[in-house]
Amino acid sequence: MPVRVVVGCQWGDEGKGKIIDLLCALSRIGVVARFQGGANAGHTVVVKSEKYILHLIPSGILHPNVQCYIGNGVVIEPDKLLYEIDLLESKNFQVRNRLAISTNAHVIMPYHIILDKSKESNPNLFIGTTGRGIGPAYVDKVDRIGIRMMDLQSPDLLREKLALNLKLKASHLKRKKVNLDKILQDYLAYGERLQPCLRDVSRLINEDITAGKNILLEGAQGTLLDVDFGTYPYVTSSSPIAGGACTGLGIGPTKIDDVIGVFKAYTTRVGEGPFPTEFLSYFYTERVREWGKEFGATTGRPRRCGWFDGVLARFAARINGLTEMAITKLDVLDRLATVQICTGYHVDGDCCRDLPTDLAIIRDCQPVYEELPGWQQNTTNIREFDKLPKQAQIYLRRIEELVDVPLRLVSVGSERDQTIWCK
Ligand code: IMP
């Protein structure tokens, strides 16, 4: 039974939630495991017209036979996680008996959120983060002063670690009200409620692999937000690429069979940073944003929108070792008279087909476009590739050719059945 990673291949918001949900519905998935990020993610799943936005719990939770794991690579905001659990349980989903949280996962503390927001208020340091404390929590992890889920079970240790953190951060937190006793009390209470779900997730998932279960490893954000390979410093602080699944869950690379890359049929980005194919015209931005409902699932911010970028896509295929690709939101382009695909970047008079490593070059390059006729037809009710309008087929096949990875699935709407499987 395969172990498959599902990764975002642009700047996040590609529709990974729907793909995970769909695979769970169709292919007897036993486990879905999240490996990085935190409540900065917002995975939207629509089932029978009801919309669920999951920030921390893996998208498989809507399927009663699926076990859901949160790996050591995730940074957890415990109150948000508890809120999500309660909300799902109030809608009659059983969560606690199917959720395992790594004892080693780091905890987002109130001061991480304060530090994130205060850094963002400095115009020289502004990244456009989600303000959920993600960066500061990963900084503490790497600095070896972080607080882990297991620490919420030990009052004395937690007090000691909190005192150390507040002392070290005192100069940054100076005017903010941070009360050690209040944090201690709140977090011990969260720890008590979450204790039944704490597990050695690495051991669990390796046992599941040995038992031959069908497993999905769920990435959040996207390849171009990767802290090493994204458009640094305009990135998140974790590793959303396929390699992150190994370190974020404690499994070896030899255990992974497939890597499914999820792309939107166009490109979006939230926050600051270069975006070569961003629409120059307000006309396209407004329409695609409205048709694609391109507003952040976590922050509600309007997303920046642009054409499909083949340079980024090829890079994502390489860095993740994609074995197949899914393209989502094709229907958003249904009404356009023409569509464009970026096939290269003009840099100093040369045409470059690989993503430059230098941010300044990515920022200043001129995208080279191929213009194709649009299909100007509603695709939301189509379920077979051959029934798509010819121009839509040509558009998808051209993308597949550029990325050089087999196209397996096209999504034409948010519902599960609005999906086309490709041969
Ligand atoms: P952070 O992850 O909150 O630190 O934000 C860093 C960058 O990643 C910002 O540009 C965010 O807008 C972006 N980002 C973080 N999470 C997501 C996501 O789930 N979708 C899209 N962009 C995200």
Report on the structure:
The protein is α/β, with parallel strands linked by helices and 423 residues long. It has three domains: 3-101 and 202-260, Adenylosuccinate Synthetase, Chain A, domain 1 (3-Layer(aba) Sandwich), CATH 3.40.440.10; 106-194, Adenylosuccinate Synthetase, subunit A, domain 2; 263-421, Adenylosuccinate Synthetase, subunit A, domain 3 (Adenylosuccinate Synthetase, Chain A, domain 3, Alpha-Beta Complex), CATH 3.90.170.10. The protein is built from 13 helices and 20 strands. It has helices at 16-26, 78-90, 110-120, 134-142, 155-168, 170-173, 180-194, 201-210, 242-247, 282-291, 310-320, 359-364, 390-403; strands spanning 3-8, 31-34, 43-47, 50-54, 67-70, 75-76, 99-102, 106-107, 198-199, 215-218, 258-264, 267-269, 304-306, 308-309, 324-328, 338-347, 350-352, 366-373, 407-411, 419-421. The strands form five sheets. A ten-stranded mixed sheet has the order 9-7-5-2-10-1-11-15-19-20, sandwiched between helices. A hairpin with a 2-residue loop joins β16 and β17 (350-352). α3 crosses α4 (134-142) and α5 packs across α7. The model has no long low-confidence stretch (mean pLDDT 95). It binds inosinic acid (IMP). Residues 11-13, 40-42, 127-130, 132, 134-135, 220-221, 225, 234, 236-237, 270-271 line the site of inosinic acid.
Give a quick summary of the entry.
With 423 residues, the chain is of the alpha/beta class. The protein contains 13 helices and 20 strands.
Blueprint (SSEs and pairs):
Blueprint: E1 3-8, H1 16-26, E2 31-34, E3 43-47, E4 50-54, E5 67-70, E6 75-76, H2 78-90, E7 99-102, E8 106-107, H3 110-120, H4 134-142, H5 155-168, H6 170-173, H7 180-194, E9 198-199, H8 201-210, E10 215-218, H9 242-247, E11 258-264, E12 267-269, H10 282-291, E13 304-306, E14 308-309, H11 310-320, E15 324-328, E16 338-347, E17 350-352, H12 359-364, E18 366-373, H13 390-403, E19 407-411, E20 419-421
Parallel strand pairs: 1-10, 1-11, 2-5, 2-10, 5-7, 6-8, 7-9, 11-15, 14-16, 15-19
Antiparallel strand pairs: 3-4, 12-13, 16-17, 16-18, 19-20
Helix pairs in contact: 3-4, 5-7
The protein binds inosinic acid.
Inosinic acid is lined by residues 11-13, 40-42, 127-130, 132, 134-135, 220-221, 225, 234, 236-237, 270-271.
Cofactor: Mg(2+)
Main location: cytoplasm
EC number: 6.3.4.4
